[in-house]
Amino acid sequence: MSRQSKEPITVDFLGQECVIQLDRYRNGGRVAMTLLIKETGEEMTVATVNVPEIPLKPDEVLIKDYSENEGLLKILEDARIVRATGTSYQSGYVKIPKCMLSPDIPERFREGDLLERVPARSHEKSKEQDREI
Known about the structure:
Layout: E1 10-13, E2 16-25, E3 31-37, E4 43-46, E5 48-49, E6 60-63, H1 72-78, E7 82-91, E8 94-101, H2 107-110, E9 115-118, H3 123-132
Parallel strand pairs: 2-9
Antiparallel strand pairs: 1-2, 2-3, 3-4, 5-6, 6-8, 7-8
């Protein structure tokens, strides 16, 4: 099933209908995925993490499937937004799964037609916090 380029991609997460927003992280230009509450446009959660030290192809993302996002990977896979590669990376006390963007994601997102609104998240800060625990 191919998606129309203007059709919003939606999923249900924690009882909220959410629209998938794809942008790019400022630090490194990787794909950033945010779930916005469809009714209000408010941010529900950021589905990806940006760890520049982890090598990724342009169509790969790291999905935050822990803490408040637990279960999100299955929802994104069921909605044919991502496909887990079977590889995950240890970060502190959690594993971060590497995924490929689905071919159903509109081509415009694969060709760099993404906004650059998502601030870089400091992975180094979280590493320091893990050491302090």
